[in-house]
Write the C-alpha cells for this entry.
Amino acid sequence: MSAGDLALFKTVCADFEDILPNDLHATFSALLGIQYLQETSDPHHPTHGQLQDQQSNQDHIRGIVWGASLRPIISLDVQISESILTLSGTRRPIHVHFLYLAASPQTFLSDEALRVLGIEDMVVVGEPYERSSNGSLRLPLKIHGHIVQVARSPTEGHFAHLNILGQDFVQITGAHVFFGGDVPRFEISIPSPS
C-alpha cells in the first residue's frame, strides 16, 4: 500500500463511532436476518437476502445500508482454510457481518470473529502467509468459499470491533458491487466458488 493509499484509508476509517460492538450482534443480525458469528452447515445455500443465479453461476447477496452515514453492511460466511490447524474454534463456516469499505485495500476480521474460528491458537501449515502493510500477519481464510488473505483488525485501532470487507476480496473473487440508488441499497454479486 502506498503512502497515499494509507493516508486515504486512515481518513476514510477515521470515524466509526456510529457502529457499536453490540450493533453486530443485535441490530445488524436483525436487519440481515442472520445471527452474527453463528455456525452454518450449508455455507453457500441461499439465506435471507441471498439469491443464486444458476445460469450465470453467481450468488447475489443483499446487504443493508445502515445509519446516517450510509454504511454498507453485508453478511458472508467465513471459515478457516485447510492449511490452518487449530485447537479450538470451529472448522465450520460462520456468518460474519462486514462493513464494505471500497477504500480499504485489504480485508480485516475482528478478534471476536477470529476467536470463534479458533485463530488465537492456530498454525499455518504448508502454505505461505503474507504480512499486511502494517506488518501484521495475513491468514488464508475462506470468505464465501474463496481464499482471501485476511488481516486482524488492529486491537488498538478505531475499528477493532469491526470486520472490514476490502477491495482484495472484490478483486480475488471477481465480485460486482452495487451501492447506491435514490433509496440506498447495497448488494454484491459473487461468482460461485468452484
Remarks:
- The chain has five helices and 14 strands.
- Helices lie at 3-12, 21-25, 27-32, 111-117, 167-173.
- The first strand starts at residue 50 and ends at 53.
